[in-house]
Design goal:
7% strand; two-stranded antiparallel sheet; alpha/beta
């Protein structure tokens, strides 16, 4: 009876994951989708704790189980409530790393169980129970394959996510050296070779197998570090998406290992969604997925060539002049970037949008796929400020509208609007699809200073004749613009 109820609970949990993921595709339903998926996960966890049976016996050590849930729940809630929107990518990376670590630890525990079982089989077979155990080990090689996949993918995701967290917080710097690509490929080949060897010799040599297993674990952690360490600049959103898909695949392996349908479904959904998003991010950055996998994605890129160019001079625009340009425009497109997130200016931006619309101005937002520090960063910011979803234009749609746009207001975006991506073969971002804001009649760029963007290169847009710089903190500038536009 209990197993039937648990199966129904797992089915409900799987359905909520699918529905929640579907609802997450739109900002206006994303919050509800998150709650639906969380409810399904909570139901699956409680069902497993109280209804799951091991050899017809219920789980025990409830004190440890609920203590772990309570501690983890408190840490998760406090972290989510205190995190700033600018630090959201860092939190996503850290939480994703914990998911990979969990998958790797599960693999270690289950491998240890198998080793103990096999060692027991070397004792004299004196009863039917040991005979049954001996027969069960015939499937151990398949189990080991699943354990190794979960171990390697989980460890790579864990180590890579921690390095990504460090790079996003500024605690870890980009680092690369000559021949790093070959070292990465060598470590990956060694991982695969040792895994095949372990699968072949197992379970006839459990002692040797244990040593090889932990060598594989350490190599996977090492590869995770090597994989992410050289990556920098505007490439980080792709890395975060890829590491997220790794964690999903590792969780799916755990679902196979325990024959747990809800764990399998959740892992497959995260893994497949992360993989699709990674491919879309690579397309948006004009990069190849192969380069991501061997750790050369964005590595070693410098802005030296761009820095050596004669850029000319830039011009500034006063606050009142910017207010006049925006107030008398027929169409304005706002391009949000990381500077908007840093200033927590999304609500002030929405107020500016409403005020311009009261004056008869058509206002839309242009969203680049990799604006900010993680996929969907700008969408999350604007959704938090209740910006209508229909006002958000994807890159292709926005580029089609720029030629008929009177004014573009760029708020902290840099690399995603840099024309060097189209015009300068020497630029590290050459070939990356961008928002073609230079096609609008007037471009107003709000930045704190002329400091280069996350990719570390100068932006050719800032020195074009139709571009004017409006320096200052995005939130204060927008608030001052609100006051100035009222007087126009």
């Amino acid at each position: 009876m209990g197993s039937s109820i648990l199966s129904i609970i797992y089915l409900i949990g799987s359905v909520t994951f699918i529905l929640g993921l579907k609802m997450l595709s739109k900002p206006d339903t994303a919050r509800k989708g998150n709650l639906v998926a969380a409810a399904g996960m909570s139901l699956a966890i409680l069902g497993t704790i109280f209804l799951y049976r091991v050899n017809d016996a219920p789980l025990h050590n409830y004190g440890w189980i609920f203590a772990g849930l309570a501690i983890g729940g408190v840490i998760g809630v406090l972290s989510a409530k205190k995190v700033k929107m600018t630090a959201m990518p860092e939190m996503v990376s850290m939480f994703n790393g914990m998911g990979g670590a969990c998958a790797a630890l599960i693999s270690i525990v289950e491998f240890d169980h198998i080793i103990k079982l096999i060692k027991n089989l070397y004792a004299p077979v004196t009863d039917d129970h040991l005979v049954l155990q001996l027969l069960e080990t015939t499937a151990s090689r398949g189990i080991v394959v699943i354990i190794l996949l979960s171990l390697i993918i989980g460890a790579v995701s864990c180590a890579g996510s921690i390095i990504a967290w460090g790079k996003l917080t500024g605690k870890v710097k980009d680092f690369s050296f000559g021949g790093q690509h070959f070292l990465n490929l060598g470590v990956l080949a060694l991982l695969i070779g040792l895994s095949v060897w372990l699968t072949v010799i197992f379970p006839t040599a459990p002692a040797t197998g244990s040593i090889i297993f932990y060598v594989i674990f350490l190599l996977a952690l090492f590869y995770g570090v090597l994989f992410v360490l050289p990556i920098g600049g505007a490439d980080m959103p792709v890395v975060i998406s890829l590491l997220n898909s790794f964690t999903g695949v590792a969780a799916a392996c755990g679902g196979f290992l325990y024959s747990n349908p809800v764990m399998l479904t959740g892992g497959i959904l995260v893994g497949s969604a992360g993989t699709i998003l990674t491919i879309l991010m690579c397309k948006a950055m004009n990069r190849s997925l192969k380069n991501v996998l061997i750790g050369s994605f964005g590595g070693g890129a410098t802005g030296a060539a761009a820095a050596g160019k004669e850029q000319g001079s830039y011009k500034e625009i006063s606050l009142n002049d910017a207010a006049v340009v925006l107030a008398y425009a027929n169409k304005v497109i706002i391009v949000p970037g990381y500077g908007l997130a840093v200033a927590q200016a999304q609500h002030a931006c929405h107020e500016l949008e409403k005020q311009l619309e009261d004056k008869g101005v058509e206002v839309k937002y242009a969203i680049h796929p990799v604006a900010g520090r993680m996929p969907g960063h700008m969408n999350v910011l604007l959704a938090e400020a209740d910006v209508p979803y229909e006002k958000l234009l994807e890159m292709e749609d926005a580029n089609a509208e720029f030629p008929t746009t009177d004014a573009v207001l760029i708020l902290g975006a840099n690399d995603v609007v840099n024309p060097a991506a189209k015009n300068d073969p020497a630029s590290p971002i050459y070939g990356m699809p961008i928002l073609e804001v230079e096609n609008a009649k007037v471009v107003i760029v709000n930045k704190r200073s002329m400091k280069p963007g996350y990719a570390g290169i100068e932006n050719d847009l800032f020195f074009q004749p139709k571009t004017s710089m409006l320096f200052g903190d995005a939130k204060k500038v927008l608030q001052d613009l609100l006051g100035a536009i009222k007087e126009v």
